[in-house]
Amino acid sequence: MNTKPDLLLQQTRSNLTEQEYYGYIILCNADKNIQKIGIDCDYPYFHRSAAKPLQASVLKDFKTDEYYDMSAREIAVCCASHTAEQVHIDILRNLLKKGGICETDLKCPAIEPLEKSEQIKFAGKYTPLHNNCSGKHTLMLLICRQMGWDIATYLDRDHPLQIAVYKKIQQLCEAQKELPFTFDGCGAPNFATSLSELAKGFYNVFCTDDYRGIRNAFLNHPYLIGGNHRPDTEIMQLGNHICAKAGAGGIMCIANTLSSQVLVIKLMEADMQARSIVAVDAMIKLGWVDDINSTDCTLLYNKIVTTENKKPVGEYKSLFDIKDFVY
Q1: Quick one: which of 217, 152, 184, 162 has its CA closest to 46?
Q2: What is the pLDDT of residues 32-55, one digit of tens each?
Q3: For the segment 151-164, what is each residue's pLDDT rounded down to a tens digit?
Q4: Nearest to 115 by CA among 272, 231, 229
Q5: For 6-324, CATH number?
């Protein structure tokens, strides 16, 4: 594996380097030319939850949005890694009702909500709807119900739905090879492409007019894509032209719908705060958003290292620049 991630970020404490973060930054331009920081040699990485808007794009092929008269809010939750706040749960329950689907039909596990206030409220009595991936699973069940496919086996790799999703991701990412396969944390099939191909996939969804419904859902309802203190929501709130979706394993995908460009970030350490700092700094350096203060974002752009008593003792320093992008 001839890969070489770049050193993107350092975290210091009392002027000594304490941690270093390596990874890749991929920029897909309006002409689909790819520029990179870090040599990835087209090594495949699993998309994890960043795949959700790509997976959801099959709703256009099946006209599922028309069949169920789906609103932009409903499409947004189907693409979300949500915090299981009441606004998310209400939308999902309405979608299940539209399809005549029960909560027990969802095959994602019942796990605690990402939002801590919801964890406290439910005190361990979680259902599959509280899983941050339940929107994706709900859409999959809706399509199966619409097409008359078996809903009990909708997560099987050889299910007609998953075959359609695989072909769609391969098409959107303009991948020429068979895609590696795994099961994601929620149990759904998940596929891998190179980071450059992933960037093209996001370009084809968010920077063309082919999937306006998904793009408009992200642009108009960023809170539904994540929720309180979630990185993709906070990134989108920096500009009304930005669409963002995070994934486990250090992945972050961001589309600038004005300049028709896409950033894909892969941080090898998979640290949420470090990944978010790299993402926002890349957006600032590219001129996608104005320079911001740490206080503008509650989670993702805090560059100050503090003690537990909030005394500043260090900082995060980005070590990349625009000139570092190479074709």
Answers
A1: 184
A2: 999 999 987 789 999 999 999 999
A3: 999 999 999 999 99
A4: 229
A5: 3.40.710
